[in-house]
UniProtKB/TrEMBL annotation:
GO molecular function terms noted in the UniProt entry: DNA binding
Gene3D superfamilies per UniProt: 3.40.50.2300, lambda repressor-like DNA-binding domains (1.10.260.40)
Every HTH lacI-type domain range: 2-58
Entries under PANTHER family matching the protein: HTH-TYPE TRANSCRIPTIONAL REGULATOR GALS (PTHR30146:SF109), LACI-RELATED TRANSCRIPTIONAL REPRESSOR (PTHR30146)
Keyword annotations from UniProtKB, A to Z: DNA-binding, Transcription, Transcription regulation
Protein name: LacI family DNA-binding transcriptional regulator
Length: 340
């Protein structure tokens, strides 16, 4: 078992100094370089500071007092201010509450603070972590070694952890299938880049796949990179729809409802009738979609259910000490409204 003395000898400082760093003692200043070396030694030597954590590491069969706390990694106020994530968070929080667990909201700055990371993860003050915000791969793997980790939404779909998301390619496919049934073949797309390229965005992949499967030509000028910005979607769509009829699409799939709402305004300002001259389909089922004029046809995403499934996946991993990475994709639903 690694002790404070071992870390002190490894770094070349006193045990008292190591203790101050690990406890994040605000009453005494410790040189930043020494702090960095102490934390490096903690990770390198695998120091586990308290008896509770030692039992967790060394004896899976022993009876351990649970903390019943879960860390939720997300940007500050994300659960309150973003309608999409607020529904996910509701599913998560209600599921954990029923199981007797509490949620602790943490941010990337918390994880980058070695003292906070040490207290929460290495000392196992939380029993698991749910991720929304993206985490650097090295840090992600370090967390995974210490506690169960589940990713929610697209950021972790290609990583070696359990993830819960909706079928983004399938959602886009449903939208194109619906537009095709309405007689459209000149279909545009509004979305944004992922990791610097549109081709990595799964809704765009679903759009391309469906266009090819239905035998429709994909016209590059009909594909708009909005940067996930409503104003850019509005401006670029207005430019596209100002072109002659034979140079513009008859329908547009938007990767989000808010992008669709912005694009619909540009269509009206160009004197086009929705859906006679151009049709729109969004993805999300944002609350605003049913109140715009005309009402927006959309692909409804099961955000609340994503939260429930993510929470249950993490609870199962905590209870069963499961190591297999599960990839869960939830289905979506087409809601036909006036915009098509």
């Amino acid at each position: 078992m690694v002790r404070l003395k071992d870390i002190a000898e490894h770094v070349g400082v006193s045990v008292t100094t190591v203790s101050r760093v690990i406890k994040n003692d605000p009453t005494r200043n410790v040189d930043a370089d020494i702090k960095k070396r102490v934390w490096s030694a903690v990770k390198e030597l695998g120091y586990t500071p308290n008896e509770h954590a030692r039992r967790l590491v060394n004896s899976a069969s022993s009876t351990i007092k649970r903390t019943h706390r879960i860390a939720w990694l997300a940007s500050p106020r994300l659960a309150d201010e973003n309608p999409y994530f607020s529904k996910i968070f509701m599913g998560i929080s209600e599921t954990f509450a029923k199981a007797g667990y509490t949620l602790e909201l943490i941010s990337m700055s918390d994880l980058q603070d070695e003292a906070v990371f040490h207290r929460l993860i290495r000392e196992k003050e939380v029993e698991g972590i749910l991720l929304i915000d993206r985490v650097e791969e090295g840090l992600l793997q370090e967390m995974k070694k210490l506690v169960p980790v589940v990713g929610v939404d697209f950021n972790y779909s290609d990583h070696s952890i359990s993830t819960v998301d909706y079928d983004r390619e399938g959602a886009a496919y449903k939208a194109i299938e619906h537009l095709a049934s309405r007689g459209h073949s000149k279909i545009g797309f509004i979305g944004g880049e992922i990791d610097g390229e549109m081709r990595f965005e799964k809704r765009f992949r679903g759009y391309k796949m469906a266009m090819a499967e239905f035998g429709f030509d994909l016209h590059e000028p009909f594909v708009i990179d909005s940067g996930w910005c409503m104003n850019k979607a509005y401006v670029k769509t207005k430019e596209l729809l100002a072109k002659p009829e034979n140079e513009r699409p008859t329908a547009i799939l938007c990767a989000g409802d808010l992008l669709a709402i912005a694009a619909m305004r540009s269509a009206r300002e160009n004197g086009l009738d929705i859906p006679r001259d151009i049709a729109f389909v969004g993805i999300d089922n944002n609350e605003m979609a049913q109140y715009v004029v005309p009402q927006l046809t959309t692909i409804s995403i099961p955000q609340y259910e994503m939260g429930v499934v993510a929470a249950k996946t993490l609870l199962n991993q905590i209870a069963d000490e499961q190591t297999m990475d599960l990839k869960t994709l939830l289905p979506s639903t087409l809601l036909i409204r006036e915009s098509t």
